[in-house]
Design brief:
Distance between the termini: 160 Å
Structural class: alpha+beta
Helix content: 25-40%
Oligomer: single chain
Number of helices: 10
Largest sheet: 5 strands, antiparallel
Strand content: 35-45%
């Protein structure tokens, strides 16, 4: 390793009694190593770069054929590089360009939770100034974060991390419990879907439906319920999934002809080298090539789009397999639609061939489930409901008799008069009996 750093020569010597020449070199303090005999009259060995002058002095006056076979080591490599000025100048320019391009953004990676559109977030980030080609030191994270928080009400926080030439944006959504609301403890129970009422469990509020009633989605089932004691409304509901498929399948088969189209991207600008694609039907395969070193990504990307000529080919399907496939697809979809709390009562399967010679499968499931959906009342709506209920309770029934007295009171009065008359008759009879005695 040390010899490689210092540099050494591989020497070949040819002649008669070449051992004498080796002994001469050793007496002249020339370090000789890696000695190899090639033939009876030829030998090969290595000497250090600084011992070459002593070797030349010892060689003078001898009849040996001495040749330098190879120059090996760091000094010789540096000498070759110095001679190739164009190479090291290009290396310096490439290093300078690498350092310059590493100060600009090449890619933006966005991670958003469910319910927030990634394209909308990317568009607003572009409007805020965060896009490919921007100088990294000019990025004001606080200003971008404030802009995004004003544009999106559902966003709780945005983290912007810079790694090399890439920007990683992570969006955090507001929790449902953190959303402000002015709702009261009162609510209406509305139907979440169409159904036939089976039973009503009104733990609070006033029930508006009875068993056997047909309700539609959005109908008010219970008025003025309390959110701490929610009613249950069980109803018979129906779910239907329809799937159709053809007895023949059309696939695209490659013919062997293909053409390539190259697209060069520099930051967010694209340049396409167009070619005439005269294929009627074709398949496309896209591959993107980009150069990156660790977290640093060069701003140049090359996208290769390969167009394969294709022709349509029809394949007949097995009827039984086709029925099984569409049945499995329908069952997977119906399992996703039906809520876990619903109880399945009845399942109907129906196969038929429609006018377009397509196999049609209809899966109908009858279930029993709680269709109660809470619609929170605002404070003003709750106060109005309380006033109406108190008013209805305080109202008295208007008497229908001429004296404007309740019918029950009149009946009681007549009963009292009859009792008094009976008592008078009894007293009169007692007095007659006493007189006769």
């Amino acid at each position: 390793m040390i010899s490689y750093i210092r540099g050494y020569y591989v020497i070949t010597v040819e002649g008669v009694e070449i051992e004498k020449f080796i002994n001469l070199l050793i007496r002249s303090n020339v370090k000789v190593y890696n000695v190899k005999r090639i033939s009876k009259t030829k030998i090969e060995f290595c000497v250090n770069r600084e011992d070459l002058k002593d070797l030349k002095r010892a060689y003078r006056g001898n009849n040996f054929d001495v040749k330098v076979k190879q120059k090996t080591g760091v000094p010789f490599i540096l000498k070759r590089i110095y001679k190739l000025k164009g190479m090291w100048i290009c290396a310096i320019i490439s290093l300078f360009l690498l350092m310059m391009t590493s100060q600009f953004v090449t890619d933006i990676y966005i991670k958003v939770p469910e319910g927030i559109n990634k394209d909308d977030v990317r568009k607003e980030l572009y409007n805020a100034g965060l896009k490919p080609g921007v100088y990294k030191k000019n990025i004001d994270r606080k200003e971008i974060r404030d802009h995004m928080m004003l544009e999106f009400d559902d966003i709780a926080y945005i983290s912007i991390n810079v790694k090399g030439t890439n920007i990683f944006v992570t969006v955090t959504k507001k929790a449902e419990t953190l959303k402000s609301t002015k709702d009261s403890n009162y609510c209406n129970i509305i139907a979440s879907k169409n159904g036939i009422i089976e039973k009503v469990i009104p733990r609070s509020g006033k029930s508006n439906v009875n068993p056997g009633d047909i309700v539609k989605k959005g109908d008010v089932l219970v008025s003025g319920a309390n959110t701490k004691s929610l009613p249950e409304i069980w109803a018979t509901t129906f779910y239907e999934v329809k799937k159709t498929d053809s007895y023949e399948d059309t696939i695209k088969e490659k013919t062997g002809n293909k053409k390539r189209v190259y697209t060069i991207s520099f930051y967010d600008k694209k340049y396409t080298l167009r070619r005439n694609i005269k294929y009627k039907d074709y398949l496309i395969e896209n591959k993107t090539h980009k150069l990156s070193i660790g977290d640093y990504t060069f701003p140049i990307k090359i996208e290769v789009s390969t167009f394969y000529e294709a022709k349509n080919k029809k394949i007949s399907k097995d009827k039984e397999k086709l029925k099984k496939e569409i049945s499995e697809r329908a069952q997977k979809e119906i399992e996703y639609i039906i809520p876990p709390s619903a109880r399945i009562i009845k399942v109907d399967h129906d196969y038929k061939v429609n006018k377009n010679n397509m196999l049609e499968y209809v899966l109908t499931v009858q279930t029993s489930e709680n269709i109660a959906h809470t619609y929170a009342l605002s404070k003003s709506e709750a106060e109005e409901y309380i006033k109406e209920s108190e008013k209805n309770e305080s109202e008295e029934e208007v008497p229908k008799n001429p004296d404007k007295r309740p019918i029950n009171d009149i009946r009681n009065e007549f009963e009292d008069k009859d009792k008094e008359k009976e008592e008078d008759d009894k007293n009169k009879e007692k007095n007659k009996d006493s007189n006769t005695n």
